[in-house]
Design brief:
By secondary structure, this protein is mainly α. It is 76% helix and 0% strand. The two termini are 32 Å apart.
Length: 102
């Protein structure tokens, strides 16, 4: 994500009236919507009545990212810290994936 999008997200996050606890519940809700969209798109039993496409799944994933980032910023962190942690976590993930290939 380019710097201006991160900054725009940080500014929007500062305007969010929900508490951190309320945002955590919202994140859980959004995660459930991702699962629901995946089930519907894959035509899982019991989900046939819902219409979902790959685009719907993508939009729900973005909602999760937005809420999680807003929580991060509302916790008092800045973009530099987010980028540092993202790099650290991606390196850890990469190491994990490399072990799986062995």
């Amino acid at each position: 994500m380019n710097a201006s999008l991160w900054e725009q997200l940080r500014k929007l996050s500062s305007q969010e009236p929900k508490t951190l606890e309320q945002m955590a519940l919202k994140l859980s809700e959004e995660s459930g919507e991702v699962a629901e969209a995946v089930l519907a798109a894959s035509e899982a039993s019991g989900s046939e009545y819902k219409q979902a496409s790959r685009n719907h799944i993508d939009e729900e994933c973005i909602d999760v990212i937005l809420v999680a980032a807003a929580m991060f910023y509302q916790s008092g962190h800045d973009t530099a810290h987010m980028e540092q942690l993202l790099q650290k976590k991606m390196e850890k993930w990469q190491e994990h994936m490399a072990k799986r290939e062995d």
